[in-house]
Amino acid sequence: xxxxxxxxxxxxxxxxxxxxxxxxxxxxxxxxxxxxxxxxxxxxxxxxxxxxxxxxxxxxxxxxxxxxxxxxxxxxxxxxxxxxxxxxxxxxxxxxxxxxxxxxxxxxxxxxxxxxxxxxxxxxxxxxxxxxxxxxxxxxxxxxxxxxxxxxxxxxxxxxxxxxxxxxxxxxxxxxxxxxxxxxxxxxxxxxxxxxxxxxxxxxxxxxxxxxxxxxxxxxxxxxxxxxxxxxxxxxxxxxxxxxxxxxxxxxxxxxxxxxxxxxxxxxxxxxxxxxxxxxxxxxxxxxxxxxxxxxxxxxxxxxxxxxxxxxxxxxxxxxxxxxxxxxxxxxxxxxxxxxxxxxxxxxxxxxxxxxxxxxxxxxxxxxxxxxxxxxxxxxxxxxxxxxxxxxxxxxxxxxxxxxxxxxxxxxxxxxxxxxxxxxxxxxxxxxxxxxxxxxxxxxxxxxxxxxxxxxxxxxxxxxxxxxxxxxxxxxxxxxxxxxxxxxxxxxxxxxxxxxxxxxxxxxxxxxxxxxxxxxxxxxxxxxxxxxxxxxxxxxxxxxxxxxxxxxxxxxxxxxxxxxxxxxxxxxxxxxxxxxxxxxxxxxxxxxxxxxxxxxxxxxxxxxxxxxxxxx
Length: 616
What we know:
By secondary structure, the chain is an alpha+beta fold. It has 4 domains: 11-135, Jelly Rolls, CATH 2.60.120; 146-270, Roll (CBS-domain), CATH 3.10.580.10; 340-467, no CATH class; 469-616, Four Helix Bundle (Hemerythrin (Met), subunit A) (Up-down Bundle). 47% of the residues lie in helices and 15% in strands. The strands form 6 sheets. The chain has a 4-stranded antiparallel β-sheet. It has a 4-stranded antiparallel β-sheet with strand order 2-7-4-5, with no helix packed on it. It has a 4-stranded mixed β-sheet with strand order 9-10-11-12. β17 (368-372), α16 (378-398) and β18 form a beta-alpha-beta unit. The longest helix is centred in the middle third of the chain and has 27 residues, at 314-340. It starts with 10 loop residues before the first helix and ends with a helix.
């Protein structure tokens, strides 16, 4: 005789006997039952497509389903009584997995808002739904408000609160102090024939007048900061933040052409809730010991987490983080000179690599060099600069900027040379582009003066770019070297993950994502003979020079920004979890939307690499 079919268990019975739903009272279960929507699906049917798991929570009443990540080839089988989707599937997998019926099955669906409300009413339920959105009031204290984003996009002119207070440079100091008191301002501008002459702040009155017992009838020009640093009215407020952080200043005139519009202060920026970089830089410059710098450098990682939470652009985040690296470097140089005495000859401390490009993140080693005046004599000056550079490089390492694995640092004899030797280096690399020379050009063609006599670098750089401009043989070798870093795309456009090493099944965002764009931009810049180092800016200037089309430059800038933000967010998540930041991203961290954009970004880079390959 044929076996009678197993009776279908009622939803009420399933809920009563379920290990989770059985925890609430019978009355509450009775009220809950109408809130579920039941659905019968045939074997092999798509229950929820990829990217849809977050839209509802499913309880399997009968049959089996499989959760599948089609990109990673992962598969999990769920049985009767198990739950999936909103609240039940881990948060980082909600948008990347799909659900498929393995056999004929019956599912009871619950809407996200209903499940969230139930867990709020019944605390015991929340234990089983670990991916529910959490509204943690404490987290609001650590995350910048939307106002933080305004600092990165708002024109500085919108932060000016009053017309500029201006006086003649010959005004007596006492008159200036009285005016500042009456108008309740902390600074005044000195103007002569409608041109900005200088700046006087309350600090100047305190430090240069009161503390030194200066005659208050003397002209205010005696205590003014001459030719003060200024910022354009149409620049983003973020630019003022960078300048203040780098130079440890608190007042900056805002200009529109040659006209003075007003003054911006750190207090104005404080009201935008995103001046932590300014205050961090200020604290850095106050440190008198290496221990103090080590302590404060740990706060830079927290700043990156805050910038990631505020959805700050990769471009602005790189500039902010790098500004603080610059500040630490300069403070270490100051400490070295205080300990060892002033340098016996002129020099310039030069950043290379990502620091030179203003593209640093929390995961950065140090690349730097020292360019000395041609008056350098090894017997007379060698010992001083050897000890000096070791003090700074070791100090940077103590502050978290590890020594360069390739020893491309000023403490290495080869990279601490007079200007004439550096000129020989560059000309040899360009004229004899052997593999090692090409590797060195990728580091030392990205240079920026940090401290000292910048003219030593600037003049040499102009000579070098004139030598590389239109040098097709050298550029062909540079392109060949650049093509060693290819985006991880397979033949059919799928993302290929690393198969071995310490980080299997991940993408190296730095070496297979960002570095190929940096290499392309460097080639464009050298071909155009431009000296800017930042990759975003190189693409823009090279486009204007005709070395790359405007559309291709925009595509590469967008790809760079997208990959940079992925990297910054990935590192922020790691630091939040107490892990050391790295560049190795697992696809599970990304939504289906992000994966699609990642493929597009890689495709853009791959296409433009092929274009350069054909050109050279």
